[in-house]
Amino acid sequence: MWPDSLAFGGDYNPDQWPEDVWNEDISLMRAAGVNLVTIGVFAWSIIEPEAGRYDFSWLDRVIDTLHAGGIGVDLATATATPPPWLIAGHPEIKPVTADGVRLEFGSRQGYCPSSPIFRDHAVALVRELADRYGTHPAVRLWHISNEYGDHITECFCDVSQEHFRRWLAERYGTVGALNDAWGTRHWGQVYGSIDQIPAPRRMPGPANPSHLLDWRRFSSDALLELLRAETSVLRDVTPNVPVTTNFMSMFYSLDYWRFAAELDVVTDDAYPDPADPHAHLDAARNYDLMRSLGRRKPWLLLEQAPSAVSWRPINVPKRPGIMRLGSYQAIARGSDGALFFQWRAPRFGSELHHSTMLPAAGTETRIFREITVLGTELAAIDEVAGTRITADAAIILDWDNWWALDADESMPSVLMRWRAALQPFYRALYHAGVTIDFVRPDDDLAEYRLVVAPNSYLLREADANRWNAYVAAGGTLLVGPFSGVVNGDAHAHCGGAPGPLADLLGVRVDEAWPLAENASAAIDIAGSVDTATIWTEWLRAADADVVGAYTGGVLDGLPALTRKKHGAGSAWYVSYLPVDAGPVCDLVLAACGIVPAPDGIERVERSDGTTSYLFLLNHGDTAVDAAAPVGEDLITGAVSAGQLRLPPRGVAIVRHGAAAAAATRGDNR
Amino acid sequence: MWPDSLAFGGDYNPDQWPEDVWNEDISLMRAAGVNLVTIGVFAWSIIEPEAGRYDFSWLDRVIDTLHAGGIGVDLATATATPPPWLIAGHPEIKPVTADGVRLEFGSRQGYCPSSPIFRDHAVALVRELADRYGTHPAVRLWHISNEYGDHITECFCDVSQEHFRRWLAERYGTVGALNDAWGTRHWGQVYGSIDQIPAPRRMPGPANPSHLLDWRRFSSDALLELLRAETSVLRDVTPNVPVTTNFMSMFYSLDYWRFAAELDVVTDDAYPDPADPHAHLDAARNYDLMRSLGRRKPWLLLEQAPSAVSWRPINVPKRPGIMRLGSYQAIARGSDGALFFQWRAPRFGSELHHSTMLPAAGTETRIFREITVLGTELAAIDEVAGTRITADAAIILDWDNWWALDADESMPSVLMRWRAALQPFYRALYHAGVTIDFVRPDDDLAEYRLVVAPNSYLLREADANRWNAYVAAGGTLLVGPFSGVVNGDAHAHCGGAPGPLADLLGVRVDEAWPLAENASAAIDIAGSVDTATIWTEWLRAADADVVGAYTGGVLDGLPALTRKKHGAGSAWYVSYLPVDAGPVCDLVLAACGIVPAPDGIERVERSDGTTSYLFLLNHGDTAVDAAAPVGEDLITGAVSAGQLRLPPRGVAIVRHGAAAAAATRGDNR
Amino acid sequence: MWPDSLAFGGDYNPDQWPEDVWNEDISLMRAAGVNLVTIGVFAWSIIEPEAGRYDFSWLDRVIDTLHAGGIGVDLATATATPPPWLIAGHPEIKPVTADGVRLEFGSRQGYCPSSPIFRDHAVALVRELADRYGTHPAVRLWHISNEYGDHITECFCDVSQEHFRRWLAERYGTVGALNDAWGTRHWGQVYGSIDQIPAPRRMPGPANPSHLLDWRRFSSDALLELLRAETSVLRDVTPNVPVTTNFMSMFYSLDYWRFAAELDVVTDDAYPDPADPHAHLDAARNYDLMRSLGRRKPWLLLEQAPSAVSWRPINVPKRPGIMRLGSYQAIARGSDGALFFQWRAPRFGSELHHSTMLPAAGTETRIFREITVLGTELAAIDEVAGTRITADAAIILDWDNWWALDADESMPSVLMRWRAALQPFYRALYHAGVTIDFVRPDDDLAEYRLVVAPNSYLLREADANRWNAYVAAGGTLLVGPFSGVVNGDAHAHCGGAPGPLADLLGVRVDEAWPLAENASAAIDIAGSVDTATIWTEWLRAADADVVGAYTGGVLDGLPALTRKKHGAGSAWYVSYLPVDAGPVCDLVLAACGIVPAPDGIERVERSDGTTSYLFLLNHGDTAVDAAAPVGEDLITGAVSAGQLRLPPRGVAIVRHGAAAAAATRGDNR
User: Fold this and answer.
1) Of the listed ranges A245-259, A321-335, A387-401, C1-15, the one predicted with least confidence
2) Helix/strand/coil for B188
């Protein structure tokens, strides 16, 4: 069963090297503690050099050699880049932009997601690989395709357009139902048949937002169909080998809830920018999402960079300690390992300047030293593999909402986007030491003390009813601005925002009141001043307590932050986007009995129910004496008696009883 | 006859609502004072759901219902968006960009202006509508198409290219004449036949400026042909119903002089940006233009937003008072009413977040309250309908010049554009309280004390001769920089700038001397320092008085501002672009005997020749005691004895005798 | 033989004027000192108004008239813009962008470089011209095409793609060799045949860098083939008339080393921006390059603007004195003359606002006065024609390296580009008064005391070996950062940077350490602090002297600037990009015995071996008393006794003995 230990390793491309290098690789991998490598991701044109002729000899030798060296294999299905002969024979596979440009071969992953020719060839290849390697003892995991949606998230060719129409016909049945759902009576778009409906290519002016929303859903589903086509073969041929595809953190274009449901293991490619001093905050958020996508099972950090990447305009390296700290951060938040892209510095190609575990300058480099230290450490903390994480608070994430909100035209403000709305709330909870799950809007919320919807612009009435029931049962709900505006078809809720949340929150929005760029507004919360940016609202609070009110400016005196109690529960509405959601979150956390731990140390606890492991991570540049439970630091063996000294960029993992863990979490329910 | 009262209302889309909502609409409209609504603008796909099959039943009921409710109809010809079946059957209707991208259906108004198929179908629809509703008593006005040129101002498809060639053949007769007019001997472009001439699609480098100028003329004419095709049907079938098409304020792509000549009523869609503190200055300018386009007849503000729009990146709402003030500003400058886009908040589509007279949150909103107040007030000042405005000063506006100047490549400075040149002069005259007409360069100027040409880069010799005669007859002419450079073919005038104005102005331009971005130059005017930006010139004043000279910098000591007297008249040349044209305008106003009223209150007077109505508008945030004639404020009934207190964003309309009006204007000729 | 005197004149377009203007032109040219004009550059559509029908009558008269006036002719082959009939008959000649947009006729020079139809017609025209005018006594020079690569540097049409494939087949022989050279095993791009290889049109993600590099080489060669096709005819028909094509200074897209090898005279079109206070530094660099491209023979400044150009967004004029100073700067650095674009102000076309020798405002203008002064002066210094320049230092320029470094994607930092790397080193040497030659990486370096490679990202092993030998023989080599990274195929050198320079420099680069935008790093050089921007490196200096070390920041204490001695020679490595390379260059100059002359006066010496001419140029706005050899100023006739007073923007040319010249250069080897 997967996993049985912490994985350490990375992508490995022996197909780019003479075989005499392979033995040196295995030897250095063992020295560095590598136990799992990903192979074959871009090997299609090597495995199948012409249609139907397969050459597995080299791959046989690679897998056997790795196995002999005690290194497991995450085996790619090799479908990420279709080979030149397939493109040359079927140029219609090449994807087309909204402008009608057919994108050329020469990079990677350039295929129309809806192409039946591409899919048929890919599935045939997967079946060959599954037949040949499905029972090889080295194969630990199937790695399907690569980073679905990287480069190509949508295709506007005629084949895709036909696919879209079939998808619409299935969704709506009749063109009349579609016309109703899209509101085509606006701007004279009433369709006579589904065959008249175009892909939303470049248009003279703004598109119908319902059209765009369905296009986003379709485009995500088109790639999902490819994933399902591959998993279907693999589950048929090799039911005992777990499958994954590598995600790209919090990614706009794909509804990862739907993708994750197809997988045995969620895996992530994580590339925090070393030039961004807040990168670890976004990394924590992404790792919480990965754990949540897998429904709290351990996930796996499948790719990260040892130092710099090569695809940003400026690729700043990771200074010493950052790679180790980031690896532990992923494990703290549920990853059962830490893998890298990639093992050995390449000789050619587009990733020549991407850092590697084994740099071009060899084993005497600081990177290889740091890699080896980490590999050694991970082997010593293997017992945390398989342990899980419990969260008191949840944040609602709904791709439909993200797509509707980030539509980029015809909205009150282009600055009011999902990431902008999420950021202050996630960061405030992070700084308060609160561990977060992400949930779907229709998930069962009962186990959470606090549920935050930073923004729910698109909100289905049925989901609103669920949230109502959650609060009625004693839960605490915090709803962010510009919520409850449209339903699942992107039609306005009757009576205006917050639509189906109006009774629950006790407020009505007269008008969205977006702020000009760089403008701000002040809110008085019990004498303290909070600052809004990007967004405020002309709000009426007919049936709610006004906790904070706008002060100064056009909205002076109007309610800004409200609370309405429902039995033991309460529903809060914040009508503005706070620069720092700390003050709002402090009030809400206090109300639901979660005790914050805001000492600047990142703390996450993994547990098997009996033994717990509290991870303490110091992202700062100065040492900190941090409160810790009584227990032993797995890394150093030091014993904590309530406090541990964490050096700059330092990590500790304190093993202790589960009861202590609960206490550390401030758990007193 | 149109108009017989002040119009109040807006766009109304009952086709987007169940019929049971219609009665509530009529009832609320009456409560708010609505007396005119625009209907059917985007109804083509509803009225004609398939080729040649018309469904007028719902429209019959809508018009009858409105009529029964006492509400007049501005009936659209519904040709703004061709229906999906027409596009699907004739994809060549879809317009093509300069890059060759054929723009997709899915927004609105996406048609090639030169498409005969589109035109034939549109004209057939117009005839059906005219036949059916032309005599309906509710129909007060024909609303042709919608905002010609919004989204699509030009099309580069082969059909358009053929149309362009026909247009050129008609203009030039022979390819030889065209080669001469375009100067094709430059850069080796001598055409062998008109069939060889392309639409100016994307090119490797700069285009021939004469080619571009004719393309602009043609593209404006191509849409003008569509307007004429519709008016031709309407004048034939319903000669007694006035026709309009809604303009988009001062709009680059269409020569509104030519469009306005086809209309009975000029109408404008005005969307000043509430985030722009100077928006009311540009609004005043636009309203003066609308009045001038209609040759001083009352025009109509056909669309404005009650609060925010939804098509800017950030759509800031109008704070309380701004909508009312802006409505009065339009009426002050000649609009016989104030209409809005749109009546009721929509449920779907691209304009979901555009403010409406009746917001989603209902009648208890501040917007609906402000709307109702305004509707009530307008009913009480109905007597100003039909009155007119007299101006002492005129500004020359010539689309040919605008197109030639704003060519965007191969010019001395991309910053030297029509709007940039106009702005300081219009604003200075506005701040001086001078009411402005816009005129064509070949208009009779005799009635104006002052004529300003902020820029006349393109100037025909015949027009220069007219200006000469105007000055010789006692007029005052102020010519701005970079004028008299090219003739109507965009060929340089002999001897350099100011070409045919050289004798009139008494100056010669050695060299244009554009300033680097953010640079400025100083000019000494009788000891005061004026500041130039964007533009200066190396000027010689052989035969003119030097009123101001450059001081410091490369041009130190050279003439900058000159005056040459011709009998009672005088011709001024300002060779630079002033940051603030106030000092220059003060000199010129004094010279022509116009007394400024620079107290910060916007004053415009409407009159029927006997009774006059002085509008006073306070755009400031503080109350002002403003000088006013003896008379009665139409809104409050208060009597002015020479002064009126205007609250912040306040308005007064003082009814008084026409003689008093003349005195207030400082009229002493 | 060319040249026999200093050329003065410009482009002349009599085909745009009635013949009665020609005589006025000749007369004014003579007054201004003009002795050479370029004619016919864009005359194809006039000379050949339809296929195969030639009209030379006007050109006969023009050339005869000029000859009668004593003015020589630089006769264009007129192939720069194909005529409309050729484009209309063969639209496939129009070039295609990477996005697939076929660029329209209507500008200039819009042809696919690989089009056989274009080439055949061009060559036929050249033969006609050569037959007719090759022996005309007025014809001094053939001007082939115009500014190759202006506007179109590459074409992505199918014809070009086929040409690219032929070029690849010739370069690599087999697809296997190509796959190896391009590293197509990366990202699954192994080609089955060369027919599968696309032009690098727009792709979904980053392209293979070797693919891009070969595309750059091919695109340069495609235009080179056109040049060769024309020179081939001309050398055949008129072997005694020298040929040129006008270069565009330091131009990215064309390997001018390969182009210059085809020419008898290197000519340059130089357009320093008057708004740039450092423009004269880049001009000096460009002129040094032109001289170097011609292997030190005199070259010719074929185009410059008398004042403003018309193709920048803002075209600031040249204030008085700048045109003269810039003309002398070109002559100082080896130009045998100064020509302009263009003679007479045009009446029409895209260059209407480009300044001219004879402005629209006529002969009373300051420009015409300055032109006439210069023409008169040049006639008096004719003796410098044909003299040459000797340099002590050289900078290595390799277009392959430029193309590889500036690839714009998949690199450590987009800011680390050739121009950015070159600039601090060229400027530091300029300010030190050191005259620079540019050399190829495989040139013989023996004659230089100092060789600088500001960046050699792409470095062939054979070239590294040459540099090694140069140092071993006593030379001084200064290598800039990010050098020795890849070989000629853009494959990484084994062991990491600096690859084949590792032993010579005695250093190893662990990691490139690019700096975030606007960040900087400090380097301690013997107690002084130097500042790096854009680029630093994690460097090890196993076998070199550490002359400077990083101080502060992540790299604190690591080596930054190193020197390794080899016998009498030494090799320096600077691992960062200095904001000001002055401190580094000072150390290196001292080490190789070049004495700097940093008094702010630009000094360059031309000599015939016996008599020397020291040019002194004051680019400042204040007068300077400058050290000068004993001799006579050719311009004023003043005698220098060791010092000369140079007014602001002033020039002197001191004639003296060659021995004195050497002393002034600080020549003591």
Assistant:
1) C1-15
2) helix
Task: Determine contact, residues C645/C623, Cβ cutoff 8 Å.
Answer: yes
B54 at the A interface (CB within 8 A)?
A: no
Dihedral through CA B539, CA B543, CA B545, CA B549, nearest 10?
A: 10
- How distant, in Å, are the alpha carbons of B478, B578, B661, C114 from that of B581? 11, 5, 27, 55
Q: Would residue B303 show up in a list of annotated catalytic residues for this protein?
A: yes
Helix B279-293 and helix B322-332, axial crossing angle in degrees, nearest 10:
30
Q: In terms of pLDDT, which residue wins out, A662 or B598?
A: B598
Residue the block writes with tokens 């013949």: C19
pTM of full prediction above 0.95: yes
- Do C310 and B411 count as a contact with CB atoms less than 8 A apart? yes
Report how many helices (DSSP H) and strands (DSSP E) chain C contains, helices first: 18, 25
Report the alpha-carbon distance of residue B632 to residue B638 in Å, rounded.
6
Predicted confidence at residue B661, as pLDDT, reads 46
> Is residue B361 within 8 Å of A484, Cβ to Cβ?
no
Q: What is the largest CA-CA distance in chain B?
A: 77
Q: Whole-angstrom Cα distance, residue C449 to residue C591?
A: 10
Q: How many other CB atoms are there within 10 angstroms of residue C77's CB atom?
A: 28
Give CA–CA dist B108/A409, Å, rounded: 14
Residue A244 parent element (H or E):
strand A243-244
Q: Could you tell me the two tokens for A273? A: 């920018």
Which chain B residues are closer than 8 Å to A415 by Cβ?
Answer: 314
Q: Strands B569-574 and C393-396, how do they pair?
A: unpaired
What is the predicted pLDDT for the residue at C598?
A: 81
Inform me whether the pLDDT recorded for B360 exceeds 60: yes
Two structure tokens written together for B482: 């970079």
| Vertex B337 angle, CA B333 and B339, to 5° | 115
Tokens of B452: 């300003």
Largest CA distance in chain A: 77
| Calpha distance B454→B441 (Å, rounded) | 12
Q: Please enumerate in sequence order all residues whose Cβ is within 8 A of that of A242, keeping only pairs 6 or more positions apart, or say none.
A: A2, A140, A141, A142, A264, A265
Which of C50, C81, C361 is nearest residue B509 as measured by Cβ atoms? Answer: C361
Q: What is the Cα–Cα distance from B330 to B343, expressed in whole angstroms?
A: 19
**By CB neighbour count within 10 A (0-12 exposed, 13-18 middle, 19+ buried), where does A573 fall?**
buried
CB A438, CB A464: distance < 8 Å: no
Range scoring the smallest mean pLDDT among A407-421, A652-666, B177-191, B542-556: A652-666
In 3D, which of A359, A355, A328, A351 has the Cα closest to residue A340? A355
User: Phi and psi dihedrals of B630, rounded to 5?
Assistant: -70, 125
Q: List Cβ neighbours of B63 (8 Å cut-off, separation of 6 or more).
A: B39, B73, B75, B133, B136, B138, B139
**Separation of alpha carbons A85 and A103, rounded Å:** 16
- The answer to whether B46 contacts A409, with C-beta atoms less than 8 Å apart, is no
Rounded Cα distance between B394 and B448, Å, is 7
Picking from C335, A379, A410, C135, the residue whose alpha carbon sits closest to that of residue B350 is A410
Tokens standing for residue C283? 């001009």
DSSP per residue over C65-103, as a string? HHHHTT-EEEEE---SS--HHHHHH-GGGS-B-TT-PBP
Classified as helix, coil or strand, A100 is coil
ipTM of the complex model: 0.96
Are the CB atoms for A284 and A428 separated by under 8 Å? no
Question: Smallest CA–CA separation between C638 and chain B, in Å?
Answer: 29
A vs B, Cβ pairs < 8 A, gives 192
pLDDT digits (tens, 9 = 90+) for C506-531: 999 999 999 999 999 999 999 999 99
Q: Which amino acid is at B128?
A: E
**Position B3 confidence tier, pLDDT thresholds 50, 70, 90:** low
Interval C292-310: pLDDT, tens: 999 999 999 999 999 999 9
